[in-house]
Amino acid sequence: MKITLQRKLERLNTDTEKMYQSIQSLSEDQLQDGRYGWSIVQVFSHLNDAERASLMYMKKNMQAGDKMQNGSVLNAFRMGFTNQVLKSSLKWKAPSYIANPPEYPSDEIKTKWNETRQAIQEYVAEYPEKWSNKLVYKHPIGGRQNLENAIDSFIYHQIHHIHQINRIKKQL
User: Fold this and answer.
1) Can you spell out the DSSP letters for 75-134?
2) What is the largest CA-CA distance in the chain?
3) Rounded to an integer, what distance in angstroms lies between the CA atom of residue 84 and that of residue 153?
4) Distance (Å, rounded) from C-alpha 147 to C-alpha 150?
5) Among 31, 114, 122, 152, which residue's beta carbon has the most beta carbons within 10 A?
């Protein structure tokens, strides 16, 4: 499982790097432009906040150890369906607890997000293999999930917001 998780984390980081490259030509004012809803920097902030909150939740749940529930086919199916919806360009409102992401200078949010990703990497490296099917994560739509499905949800959540960034870039 560790190799699979490492590959998924590599994909997540590669996708993030491609996203950064796609906005490289934009000025700080364009990155902060919120005339069309969230600014690009707010999208980055939202992605970071969602990943950071998920990591804190997973760390807390991990304290239950072997008492964590085991996953089932139903959990995986529900997350698979959720990921397909996230992969689409459909739009919907973010959950209220993360609906108003703060704005930072673009270099500051990148630094914060890199720190979150490093913490996720460390968490995955320390996560016991014997808990690979334990439900350590809770997605707002997909429900309770194991660590592998959590990383998948980060990937598909980011893909969902890449559609949003592309819409914003077209309007700038």
Assistant:
1) HHHHHHHHHHHHHS----PPPGGGSS-----HHHHHHHHHHHHHHHHHHHHHS-GGGTTB
2) 50
3) 10
4) 5
5) 152
**The overall pTM is greater than 0.90:** yes
Q: Which structure tokens are listed for 30?
A: 């364009």
Task: Tell me if residue 25 falls in helix, strand or coil.
Answer: coil
One digit per residue, pLDDT tens: the chain, 172 residues? 688 999 999 999 999 999 999 999 999 999 999 998 899 999 999 999 999 999 999 999 999 999 999 999 999 999 999 999 888 877 777 777 777 888 888 999 999 999 999 999 999 999 999 999 999 999 988 999 999 999 999 999 999 999 999 999 999 8
Cα(60)–Cα(62) distance, integer angstroms: 5
Residue whose structure tokens are 């990383």: 151
For residues 46 and 101, is the Cβ–Cβ distance under 8 A? yes
